[in-house]
Amino acid sequence: MRVGFGYDIHRLVPGRRLMLGGFQVPSEYGEDGHSDGDTLIHALVDALLGALALGDIGSFFPPSDPLYKDINSAVLLKEAVRFIQEKRAKLVNVDSTVILEQPKIGPYREKIRESLAALLEIEAFRVSVKAKTKEGADATGRGEAVEAYVVVLLED
């Protein structure tokens, strides 16, 4: 068994799409990032790479590379899934937490789960998406950023 942990944070800015797990959440603000800024997918890719002891998302998809400018983060996740398949590992489950003040993602939780499961090529019951707030504490709590934490379990 292999465990991986991932984390990501992005500032929220007007005029960008809010992408979480490959799903566009209706919002006036979206992630500021080199790619589409999907904080949840970025944390998930880090967790998967970590479980495989391959490093982090920046090592494979550097923000300095123009190839990744505004890229759909689902493309990056599909590449991480390919690494799992190459290692002949099996993704057992994903446990994630998104920290965001607004908008509330509860109404979109199932769509996000289904999107991630499809991208990961696993059953939705193996994917958990939880939502939290920081109740006004720090930049995320003031609504200036979105954070995501992800833990994955792989079986060799």
Written description of the protein model:
- This protein has 156 residues and is α+β, with helices and mostly antiparallel strands.
- The chain has one domain: 2-C-methyl-D-erythritol 2,4-cyclodiphosphate synthase (60s Ribosomal Protein L30, Chain: A).
- Helix content is 30%, strand content 31%.
- It is built from 5 helices and 7 strands.
- The strands form 2 sheets. It has a 5-stranded mixed β-sheet with strand order 4-1-7-5-6.
- Strand 5, helix 4 and strand 6 form a beta-alpha-beta unit.
- Helix 1 packs parallel to helix 3.
- It is globular, with a radius of gyration of 15 Å.
- The protein starts with a strand and ends with a strand.
Annotation keywords:
156 residues; alpha+beta; 60s Ribosomal Protein L30, Chain: A; five-stranded mixed beta sheet; two-stranded antiparallel sheet; 7 strands
The gist of it:
This protein is an alpha+beta fold. It has five helices and seven strands, in the order E-E-E-E-H-H-H-E-H-E-H-E.
